[in-house]
Design a protein that fits this description.
Keywords: Membrane, Transmembrane, Transmembrane helix. By secondary structure, this protein is an all-alpha fold. The chain has two domains: 64 residues; 270 residues, Hemolysin E, Chain: A. Helices cover 76% and strands 0% of the residues. The chain has 13 helices and no strands. Helix 4 packs parallel to helix 13.
Length: 438
């Protein structure tokens, strides 16, 4: 039978069970977790939006800076582009007209411009030779001997042009007192012819002098190379203990350095002298062509005057002298002037042929020197080593050939000069005899 509970007493077991079944105060309240998760998400979105705004602002700021900088650089970039295009255009024009403008390179101001840069050889320091082909170098140097032999008569032609100046001046005097309608223009053309003939004659003498100087300098540098190689070879032979450790066919260091240095010097001198002589030959060719234009001008003026002249320019001035009566009054006195005037165009043609051949020969030598320089600067090929003894022999033979060619050319020139001087003496004697008789 169950016990009856007294009124006012609590059921302890029920109380215990109710306490156990009641949720603890530490457990999360429904709805609180959702509120916490929502706060975290909103915070992340806020940070993301702020970063996006910062990135957008930075990008627009940098873009604005670049836009402003490019706008400010528009004119400088335009000027730079214009300068580049102008340089390209000038380079194209200079390459096309370099040969025409080459005579201007003698002026001191224009020697260092782009027009004259191709006429000066490339510095040898930029292309240090690795091999020394003295056989080919001496062969190229022999070309100057042939050029000197070919130009032995240039001095004689220059003297004849000099003598024709006096006869042309006398002719200009006769034209000045003649009845020609265009006598002033004809006198002016004759005087211009005298000036051009003087320049042409001086240029021919200057060309001969430059060729002589070129041969002298080439001979000197060859002689220096010969002594340098011999001295280095003697020094290496004295170091017998050091050489005993080396192979018989191995190049000796000191001798090899001396050979390359001597070859470098000799090649540089040959290149420089070739370019200088080539420029002088080009100037002489231009002077002789200008002389031909003066003769054509004189012929046209005489044709307008109705003077019956031969079509050949060689007899132009002498026939003009005859028309004016110069040879009727003093024929014996003016025989030399008539001969000079009659042959003046022939002298010009001979000089022009000599100068053109000289220029072509110098151009060939210059091209060969550049080819030799390129080949010497290339890597050394196995088996190309030449002993110092053979190089010394090559250089000695080159010096001998240059000296022999120089002596032959000098002897021929002296003989031609003697002929010219004897001709002048005979003409002067005949003129003096005519003066005494008259």
């Amino acid at each position: 039978m169950a016990r009856k509970r007294k009124p006012g007493t609590k059921n302890k077991g029920a109380t215990t069970r109710s306490l156990l079944s009641r949720p603890s105060s530490t457990a999360p309240v429904p709805g609180t977790a959702g509120r916490l998760e929502g706060g975290d998400v909103s915070g992340d979105l806020h940070v993301h939006n702020q970063a996006k705004q910062i990135l957008t602002f930075t990008t627009s700021y940098v873009a604005d800076i670049l836009r402003t900088a490019l706008w400010l650089l528009k004119k400088p970039l335009g000027l730079v582009t214009f300068a580049i295009l102008l340089i390209i255009a000038l380079g194209f024009v200079i390459d096309r007209f370099r040969s025409v403008l080459s005579p201007l390179c003698t002026l001191p101001v224009l020697q260092f411009t782009a027009v004259c840069s191709s006429h000066s050889p490339v510095p040898l320091d930029m292309k240090n030779p690795k091999t020394a082909d003295f056989a080919r170098l001496v062969e190229l140097q022999d070309g100057f001997s042939g050029i000197m032999a070919m130009n032995a008569g240039v001095g004689e032609i220059g003297l004849k042009l000099k003598q024709s100046e006096m006869a042309t001046l006398d002719l200009a005097t006769l034209v000045g007192v003649s009845d020609f309608k265009n006598r002033e223009a004809l006198v002016r053309a004759l005087l211009q012819f005298v000036d051009d003939a003087q320049k042409a004659g001086d240029g021919l003498h200057r060309l001969s002098a430059k060729l002589d100087g070129a041969v002298d300098r080439i001979t000197i540098v060859n002689d220096y190379a010969l002594h340098a190689i011999q001295s280095a070879r003697s020094h290496d032979e004295d170091s017998a203990s050091h050489l005993a450790l080396q192979s018989v066919y191995a190049p000796r260091p000191l001798t090899e350095d001396s050979v390359l240095r001597s070859f470098n010097d000799a090649m540089g001198v040959l290149a420089r002298e070739t370019q200088r002589s080539l420029l002088e030959a080009s100037l002489n060719a231009a002077n002789l062509e200008r002389l031909q234009e003066r003769l054509i001008t004189i012929h046209e003026i005489c044709s307008r005057e109705g003077v019956a002249l031969n079509a050949a320019h060689g007899e132009l001035l002498s026939e003009l002298w005859t028309v004016l009566g110069g040879n009727r009054q003093a024929r014996r006195k003016n025989e030399m002037q008539l001969a000079l005037l009659q042959a003046v165009d022939q002298h010009r043609k001979q000089a022009h042929v000599h100068v053109i051949l000289t220029r072509e020969a110098l151009q060939i030598i210059a091209a060969d020197v550049e080819e030799l320089r390129e080949r010497a600067a290339a890597p050394e090929v196995v088996g190309e080593y030449v002993s110092p003894e053979v190089m010394i022999k090559f250089i000695s033979q080159g010096i001998e050939r240059l000296q022999e060619g120089r002596q032959r050319e000098r002897g021929r020139r002296e003989a031609l000069m003697d002929e010219v001087v004897n001709g002048v003496s005979v003409a002067a004697s005949s003129s003096l005899a005519f003066s005494i008789e008259s």
